[in-house]
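ARCHIVE CARD
CATEGORY: sequence design from structure
SOURCE FIELD: tokenized fold
FIELD CONTENT:
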């Protein structure tokens, strides 16, 4: 009986959302783009939502100056025919946040009031800086649009994985009803700050704040919270939908790492988090591994034959030196491969029961165009180990 293999093609075909997680610099964006390309070549309508594509990759995909517009990528250059489509979009946090306000606002008046509010502008800057939060917001809209069969989400290289997984709840927490109530309680359409209707602790606090920040600012703040109160339900609904989406059987969290200790540490951490949160684990990809393509464990004979052939033109001494050097290079590469495999063992063990385990070799040169993505794809979609 042969060992059961994991069918990567079947997995990609049945998946609707892939969330790529892992440390920075390991090849998350590359993998996300590759999965997108593979999905499109398999006939699906795919959106790759990326955060920080390497400039050359972005350029060759036609993603230059596009902000957060959905852009279709021309696959013709590959010379492969497909009914599928590949779309990509770069996350632009600021316009995402404004767009979000626009969508959840009940009407144009309240929308404009919020967008022009000083407190909102300040808060938008703060939240816009948190790409992980904006990624989940954009994700919601993309799924909601129903335009895509498969969405591949490239996540920002967050130091703390929790940030990303918990990001949908963060705005809700910030907007917690109790906080809102605290701000809204002393505020009444007919009451102004410092007015006689303000009483109790909040009133004292408000008066102090007004003293520190000035009354204009506080009025802005109060208006802001008042307007936001009406949006609260919208945020909760979106949050619930994203949380549900993350747990959907059609969703796969794919952990990506390189065969380095630090990125494997991050991968182990993600695996533990995904397990703890009972989120669907798609599998683990170890990218940029060094491989000895051949099966030969001892290359002496082959290299010997090679040098004998070459030695028709070389002196025996040179041929012997060449043989020794090639032998040494082969042993080093094998040793490196073994060291990497030993490192990866820990993440494999920790990923047990969580989908596939796939390795992608380190290719010569960078991966920055459709052809090289396609090349990565050929290594990615072959049968994998079962975790
Ligand atoms: N398998 C690979 N072989 C060779 N180069 C790779 C491979 N995977 C990624 N790269 C290169 O490594 C760099 C980092 O990849 P990227 O996908 O941007 O990482 P991340 O998104 O995790 O920060 C890029 O220059 C990319 O071209
Ligand atoms: Mg990246």
């Amino acid at each position: 009986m042969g060992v059961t293999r994991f069918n990567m093609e079947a997995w990609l075909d049945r998946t609707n959302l892939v969330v790529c997680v892992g440390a920075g610099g390991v090849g998350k964006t590359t993998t996300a783009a590759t999965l997108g390309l593979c999905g499109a070549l398999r006939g699906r309508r795919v959106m790759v939502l990326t955060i920080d594509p390497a400039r050359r990759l972005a350029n060759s995909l036609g993603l230059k100056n596009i902000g957060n517009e959905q852009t279709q990528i021309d696959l013709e250059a590959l010379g492969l025919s497909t009914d599928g489509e590949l779309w990509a979009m770069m996350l632009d946090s600021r316009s995402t946040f404004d767009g979000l306000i626009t969508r959840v606002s009940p009407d144009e008046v309240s929308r404009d009031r919020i967008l022009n509010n000083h407190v909102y502008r300040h808060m938008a800057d703060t939240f816009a800086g948190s790409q992980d939060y904006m990624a989940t917001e954009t994700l919601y809209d993309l799924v909601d649009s129903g335009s895509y069969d498969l969405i591949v989400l490239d996540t920002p290289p967050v130091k703390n994985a929790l940030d990303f997984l918990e990001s949908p709840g963060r705005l809700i927490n910030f907007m917690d009803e109790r906080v809102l109530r605290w701000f809204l309680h002393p505020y009444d359409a007919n009451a102004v700050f410092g007015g006689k209707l303000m009483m109790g602790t909040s009133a004292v606090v408000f008066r102090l704040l007004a003293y520190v920040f000035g009354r204009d600012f506080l009025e802005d703040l109060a208006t802001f919270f008042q307007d936001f109160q009406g949006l609260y339900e919208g945020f909760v609904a979106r949050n619930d939908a994203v949380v549900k989406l993350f747990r959907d059987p059609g969703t796969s969290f794919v952990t990506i790492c390189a065969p380095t200790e630090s990125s494997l540490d991050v991968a182990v951490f993600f695996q533990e988090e995904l397990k703890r949160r009972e989120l669907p684990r798609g599998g683990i990809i170890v990218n940029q591994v060094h491989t000895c393509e051949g099966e030969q464990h001892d290359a002496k004979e082959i290299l010997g034959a090679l040098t004998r052939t070459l030695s028709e033109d070389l002196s025996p001494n040179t041929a012997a030196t060449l043989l020794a050097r090639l032998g040494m290079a082969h042993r080093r590469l094998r040793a490196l491969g073994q060291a990497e495999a030993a490192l990866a063992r820990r993440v494999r063990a920790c990923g047990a029961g969580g989908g596939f385990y796939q390795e992608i070799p380190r290719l010569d040169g960078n991966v920055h165009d459709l052809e090289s993505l396609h090349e990565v794809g050929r290594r990615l979609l072959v049968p994998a180990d079962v975790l």
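CARD ANNOTATION: Residues 186-198 have pLDDT under 50 and may be disordered. DSSP finds 15 helices and nine strands in the chain.
SHELF: design records, drawer C
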